[in-house]
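Pasting two entries for a bug report.
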Amino acid sequence: MNESKKIVSYTVQVKHRYLLNGLAWIVAGIFLIIPFKIFTMMSTVCIIATLYLKTMDFRKNKEEADEMAEANMNAAMARTLMVGEIILVVFAMVVGNIMVDYMGLKLNIAAYITPGLLIFLGLLDFLVGLFFKQEEQ
């Protein structure tokens, strides 16, 4: 069978769109925290990889989601939303209340906004893919 005619299964699409893409976002965010040029360049490579993984959705030869896959995706997204809310609340409490108020920690928050956002968004994408795989089993 010709490689260009190969139909990409919905499970593989989810793996690319969420699992691998989430990992690439997380790695990009971690690389941005490290203040060396090589890590900034590696972060750029990771972001380019995420763009490639996201554009893979525009393939013509892909399997459409059936009702069960859609139900599993909805359940995975619902679980991810719950976990994401918990992470944000815990992070806000730890950074806002404990580290700043009680420990007197002085942070340059602006330097960590972009890496933190990339890591958080990557974690959400990764969790959707992970929870989808759990629902499929």
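Entry 2 (this is the one that rendered wrong in the viewer):
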Amino acid sequence: MEELFNSVYSTHKGISFSTVVVFGAFIFLILQVHLSYKGRISDVLRKTSFFSMILLYIQGILGVFLGIYSPEFSETSGFSSYFRLFEYGISILLCAGMMTYVYKYIKNNKQLSLKIVVIALVAALLFEYAYPWRLIFG
């Protein structure tokens, strides 16, 4: 069981770098479209929103899996201990849900609205809150 946990953790850690890069590119592009192109949605924005949504779902599912199969899970007692184990995965899945809404809007419309920009920025703040920066980057 420990080998499975370590291999999933390594996969999760490897995918996290690409998630940071793609999601950062998406936030940059959505702000660029909102501020400079008068809201016309480009194909690059559509593609980065799709890939960031997929990567966030993968990260969230792997985070919940790691919370369940964590060696600390059997030792915890109390709600706060369980919440600490699942906080990352659930927060990332909420962020992925918001990105699904943003992606559906971007896919079906040609003009960007302020509501979508705000939802994307809230998703970015949630991602920034949930992401374990200290564990990943030292």
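Dev reply: Rendering is fixed now. As a check, the viewer should reflect this: The CA atoms of residues 30 and 45 lie 7 Å apart.
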